[in-house]
Design a protein that fits this description.
Length: about 400
């Protein structure tokens, strides 16, 4: 139940020696068609890795026949040599696919490239390119699980999702466990569908899906240089769903993967949903949710099982959202401990012993709402991000 669940796709994951652990680190996803339409969303970071710059150019053509991904090195902040290495990776991928047992009519301009890992170091091309060759030989219609494993970095589990439509389906894989912030997380995501859809429909579906899923997870307020979400359509089902049906299915897959990302966030002991209601606009709701999600005092309080609503109100007060301080209500796990900007129910009634936490903030200004998902700030997060060079 992975990226190879939809018809027309093969994938693989192999160990090329990029990771010191010897774990799989090169993945390949190939679209066998008959369609090769695609769409993508990339990091909002102004510092973009070489593979992002390359793949942005590829997507301008609207066709992606293959995606090659590596973990164990981000190829970010590597200058002109890093871009040449990305170009060489795409050329090598196209060459081995053209010469394989199932020759593909693919050129380097049809190959998207994704990388993840340490920033600032060149990739060991002497290992990567043979790894790409091995991945091409290992391509299989059931290879999605191995591909999802190969793109993991600090992830503790591989992340996959599938939605079945009427005669068509959508599948996806993702990696990411840290630097999870809006404008995408530090993640690589490949979504596949065997539906028939043109580039315009795919682009609209993906942008709407990411807007309410990946763009609304925020573990630590940090944004990566390599974030990439790709949507590939093979048309192999010979079914053309309505744009609304496709958008709904892609959104469901993205939501599933986004929740897996936040659940696996580095060092997290709490999975926190911040539900902002009664906002004057959706933008206000999102701004309030993101601000609370990024507030270290709120995050540390939740790590300590402290339902400290005062910290929540203080965070809300730093936003530009429309509200009156003496009208805000706040609940934690269903207990309304703040009403009208003041203490209400006894905070000792709030049960924070479990992993799941829901903070509800009612601004009492309108009918708009939004949810942001975040995590707490733990000792383990600090340890992992001080011990792991990133």
């Amino acid at each position: 139940m992975t990226v190879t669940h939809p018809k027309g796709f093969r994938a693989s994951g192999v160990a090329a020696g990029l990771k010191a652990t010897g774990n799989p680190d090169v993945a390949l996803v190939v679209n066998d068609g008959p369609d090769f339409t695609a769409a993508a969303v990339f990091t909002g970071n102004r510092v973009k890795a070489a593979p992002v710059l390359w793949s942005q150019q590829v997507l301008k053509g609207g066709i992606v026949r293959a995606v090659v991904l590596n973990s164990g090195g981000a190829n970010a902040c590597t200058g002109s040599q890093g871009f040449r290495d990305t170009h060489a990776t795409a050329e090598h991928t196209a060459t081995v696919l053209r010469g394989g047992p199932r020759p593909q009519m693919v050129g380097p301009g049809d190959v998207a490239v994704c990388s993840t890992g340490l920033i600032g170091e060149l990739l060991p091309m002497g290992k990567l390119l043979p790894g790409v060759s091995a991945a091409a030989k290992a391509l299989d219609k059931d290879g999605g699980a191995k591909a999802a494993e190969a793109i993991m970095t600090t992830d503790s589990v591989a992340k996959n999702a599938v939605v079945q439509g009427q005669g068509w389906s959508v599948g996806g894989m993702a990696k990411g466990a840290g630097m999870l912030a809006p404008a995408l997380a530090t993640m690589l995501v490949v979504i596949t569908t065997d539906a028939s859809a043109d580039n315009e429909v795919l682009d609209a579906a993906l942008r709407e899906a990411t807007r309410v899923t990946f763009d609304r997870i925020d573990a630590d307020g940090c944004m990566s240089t390599n974030d990439t979400v790709l949507l590939l359509a093979s048309g192999a089902s010979d079914v053309q769903p309505t744009p609304e049906e496709l958008t709904a299915a892609v959104t469901t897959v993205c939501h599933d993967l986004a929740q897996q990302l936040i659940a696996d966030a580095e060092g997290a002991t709490k999975h926190i949903a911040i539900v902002v209601e009664g906002a004057d606009s959706e933008a206000d709701a999102v701004e309030v949710g993101r601000t609370v999600a990024r507030n270290n005092l709120v995050k540390t309080a939740l790590f300590g099982n402290d339902p400290n609503w005062g910290r929540i109100l203080a965070a809300v007060g730093t936003t530009q959202a429309k509200f009156e301080p003496d009208r805000i209500d706040v609940a934690i796990n269903g207990v309304w401990i703040c009403k009208g900007g003041s203490a209400a129910e006894d905070r000792s009634k709030v049960d924070l012993s479990g992993r799941d936490v829901t903070i509800t903030i009612n601004l009492r200004e309108g009918a708009m709402a939004a949810t942001i998902w975040t995590t707490d700030l733990s000792h383990a997060y600090v340890h992992e991000n001080s011990a792991y060079s990133s």
